[in-house]
Amino acid sequence: MVGYLVLENGEIFEGERFGAMAVDTACEVVFNTGMAGYLETFTDPSYAGQGIVMTYPLIGNYGVISEDFESENIWAKAVFIHELAEFDSNFRKEGNLNKFLRDYKIPGLTNINTRKLTKILRESGTMKGYVTSDISNMPEIMKKIRDYEVGHVVRQVTTKQMMSYGKNNEKQVVLMDYGFKHNIVNSLLKRGIGVTVCPSNTPANKILQLKPDGILLSNGPGDPQTCREEIEVIKDLIKTDLPIFGICLGHQLMALAHGFQSAKLKYGHRGPNHPVKDLRTGKVHITSQNHGYYILDNSVNPEIAEVSHINLNDNTVEGIRYKNKKIATVQFHPEACPGPQDSAYLFDEFVAQL
């Protein structure tokens, strides 16, 4: 079945539909530069509200493996690829990508020019788009694109109730769930730390009743400035002396809670190949990233905090350490799986403070 991606600038990409072929949807169109890890990408809650362009030309070649999921759902609203693997092969595979997307009602487009599409997004910036099989009524499609907003998607992806892992472990951490990836929990469990996952808007007094040894602020989707209630909770948590570690959206929310400012990147950082320099050690780490917003370096108050990491591609802030507090945050994903493991040491530093 022929399908189309219509961008907000009016450009149309024609391709072949797969996955949920009857589903038409608006989305924010972004690109990911990963050569592998499409399962982790599609199940990452940080992609809620977005349609993902995979720049690697062949997707689906190792099928679907539930063990590799980062959550229980596909959070991407659509998937755009150059070529869908005709045959998938892996000794762990449980199914194919086409059926996987169809089961979760996610539309996909294959046989489209992902190179051209990515260049447009790089040059013009992230755009909204619409996936459809019928472009006969373009005024209506353009209205749907204009009206679409990603919105406060954290409330869509967060857990509805507390969940506990490793209850009998000596040290316990509360993980604030803004859209956490499973490997964050796994990274703590393998270090002997128990984890209680809490909904994003859990009041600070309820969190402290759990008597945690530390707090971890998770990754998540959307504009951090929409998370007003979550920021207020973090302001209360800052008043404690507990060690706090923030990842991705958690990094941004901690900064906003301190009065720093965020802004939207032109086309975001999404992929497992971003060089980041640790300013304390001078070492450069290859990191996995997935975010469309960043913290303005000139808004970081030097009396409160210092920039700890920078992105060597564009010099944006990638980490902040807070003075006189056991608080550190990073914009990238030290738990990335698959992906580079260079920055896993950050979990060790956090655990050492508990």
List descriptors.
32% strand; 2 domains; 354 residues; alpha/beta; 10-stranded mixed beta sheet
Percentage of β-strand residues:
25-35%
Gross CATH architecture of the largest domain: 3-Layer(aba) Sandwich
In total, the number of strands is: 19
Largest sheet: 10 strands, mixed
Derived from helix and strand composition plus strand pairing, the structural class reads: alpha/beta
What distance lies between the first and last C-alpha atoms, to the nearest angstrom?
Answer: 55 Å
Would you mind describing this structure in some detail?
The chain has ten helices and 19 strands. It is of the alpha/beta class and 354 residues long. The chain has two domains: 146 residues, Glucose Oxidase, domain 1; 199 residues, 3-Layer(aba) Sandwich (Rossmann fold), CATH 3.40.50. The strands form three sheets. Strands 10-12-11-13-14-19-18-17-15-16 form a ten-stranded mixed sheet, with helices on both faces. The protein has a seven-stranded mixed barrel with strand order 1-2-8-6-4-3-9. Helix 8 links the parallel strand 13 and strand 14. 48% of the residues are buried. The model has no long low-confidence stretch (mean pLDDT 96).
